[in-house]
Design goal:
The chain is of the alpha/beta class. It has nine helices and eight strands. 32% of the residues lie in helices and 20% in strands. The longest helix has 10 residues. D-xylitol-5-phosphate (DX5) binds next to strand 2, strand 8 and helix 8.
């Protein structure tokens, strides 16, 4: 259809039927988005290492792994070794270890992503934009699926787009549905994470197609 990468978030899947729910989206998307949360960086606990390892065994989809954890540097080797393809971590969690963390991901031959929460300005991560494969602009406060899209984040997408090298993937995550997706694409986003909109729809194929 077009070159927008849709990455369904399995946070909205049924965790007792993860394989079944991954297979539901598999024919229509290249990526699957896995939200790793530690109860410290965000006020929720979700998926960890053993689950990602199991997911790797049941799908060939590109594993888009979103680490919402403190001290991401310490977990890069393990997530790399169990089959994550892209590892996105939060600038707010890494701070002065940001470059080291990016380098560790690259040394493991994985794609590197850097994410910012809604209150973090683009200026703070501008210096890393040429070092990573993907920038993730959170369009909700990280921690939970099913939240409302924060419109004020749209200008950040535009700002990133203006300074981005041609191959940078600009991803958005949080409150993405058929309407908010268009707003993000118009500003320059080319990867959309969507959880509840896809998994709660009556027709998953149509929901995915309506995003781009
Ligand atoms: C939130 C997660 C998201 C979440 C998105 O912290 O990073 O990936 O699953 O869910 P929706 O699409 O329902 O907002
Ligand atoms: Zn996410």
């Amino acid at each position: 259809m077009n070159n927008i990468i849709i990455s369904p978030s399995i946070l909205s899947a049924d965790f007792s039927n993860l394989e079944r729910d991954i297979k539901k989206v598999e024919p229509y998307v290249p990526w699957i988005h896995i939200d790793v949360m530690d109860g410290h960086f965000v006020p929720n606990i979700t998926i960890g290492v053993p689950v990602v390892e199991s997911i790797r065994k049941v799908t060939k989809l590109f594993l888009d792994t979103h680490l919402m954890i403190d001290n991401p540097y310490s977990f890069i080797d393990i997530f790399s070794s169990i089959g994550a393809d892209l590892i996105t971590f939060h600038y707010e969690a890494a701070l002065d270890k940001t470059l080291q963390t990016i380098e560790k991901i690259k040394n493991n031959n994985k794609k590197a992503g850097l994410s910012i929460k809604p209150d973090t300005k683009v200026d703070e991560i501008e210096q890393y934009i040429n070092e990573v494969d993907l920038i993730l602009i959170m369009t909700v406060e990280p921690g939970f699926g099913g939240q409302k899209f924060i419109e004020s984040q749209l200008s950040k997408i535009e700002k990133i787009k203006k300074i981005a090298p041609p191959n940078l993937i600009i991803q958005v995550d949080g409150g993405i549905n058929n309407k908010t997706a268009k707003l993000c694409i118009n500003k320059g986003a080319n990867s959309l994470v969507s959880g509840s909109y896809i998994y709660k729809s009556a027709n998953i194929k149509q929901a995915i197609e309506a995003l781009s």
